[in-house]
Amino acid sequence: MSILEAKQIHKHYQLGQHTILALAGVDFSVEKGDFVAIMGPSGSGKSTLLHLLGGLDTPTEGEITIAGKQLSKLNEYETTIARRHNVGFVFQFFNLIPTLTAEENIQLPLIIDGKDPRKFTEHLDRILDLVGLADRRDHKPDQLSGGQQQRVALARALITEPAIVLADEPTGNLDSKSGTSIMELLQQSCRELNQTVIVVSHDPKAAAYADRVIFLRDGVIVHEYRPVASSSLSERLQVIMSTMQDLEKSP
After folding, report:
1. pLDDT band at 251 (very low <50, low <70, confident <90, very high)
2. pLDDT over 90 at 169, yes or no
3. Helix 102-112 and helix 121-130: axis angle, to 10°?
4. Domain 4-243, CATH number (from 3.40.50.300, 3.40.1010.10, 3.40.630.30, 1.20.210.10)
5. pLDDT value of residue 1
6. What is the DSSP string of the chain?
């Protein structure tokens, strides 16, 4: 059974007298433990799709189901709870609270959900080890590098053991080395935690870490690439870059 399904998703925006078509009939499903990247030219609908998949916005038409819950059948409060329990978010900008330590920032989703963080000490330690921040847990954001701050953001997304982690340009604000580290961590979370991860990125190097790459153009899925498990990152990167070039050249 799919952990996430999107059926015939359309999204329109009204800009004055003009209707902007962001998505035009997207069918999309993800199995538990999948690592999926969504790519496409600027304006193709990548971030719009991610926000819809995470319940941050509602489609104009179509149905999105997360962990068996059809979002269209939920009211605003129920959608918030479904999102809180099933989706972890990682954004380009880290969105950490500057007055809190790394550990306290990571614990925030537990506190918001009314849970006692002390009951999750073992899980917190495991997540801190996974992201390589066990020795930085008491540091505040201004004492951490950009890459370390994004690791905190990833740990925060993982702490509630969500059904899905959605990452919107998670390497976009990082240098190449830090970006590589974050993508390796996302890949590792899939393998070690059986975590489902969906990444939106404009960066072919980031997408090369995924086991499945979806290509959007003009609000529709136009291609899908599933690299063989034995393929190297450089081989994957070559295919992804070639596909993106073809999309950008096509009328």
Report:
1. low
2. no
3. 130
4. 3.40.50.300
5. 67
6. --SEEEEEEEEEEEETTEEEEEEEEEEEEE-TT-EEEEE-STTSSHHHHHHHHTTSS--SEEEEEETTEEGGGS-HHHHHHHHHHHEEEEESS----TTS-HHHHHHHHHHHTT--GGGGHHHHHHHHHHTT-GGGTT--GGGS-HHHHHHHHHHHHHTT--SEEEEESTTTTS-HHHHHHHHHHHHHHHHHH--EEEEE-S-HHHHTTSSEEEEEETTEEEEEE---TT--HHHHHHHHHHHHHHHHH--
Q: What does the mean pLDDT of the chain come to?
A: 88
Does residue 56 register a pLDDT over 90?
no
User: Which residue's entry shows tokens 């809190």?
Assistant: 100
- Residue recorded with tokens 């998505």: 23
212-217 and 61-66 as β-strands: parallel, antiparallel, unpaired? unpaired
pLDDT band at 98 (very low <50, low <70, confident <90, very high): very high
Query: How do residues 204-238 score in pLDDT, each as one tens digit?
Result: 999 999 999 999 988 899 999 999 888 899 999 99
Domain boundaries, the chain: 4-243
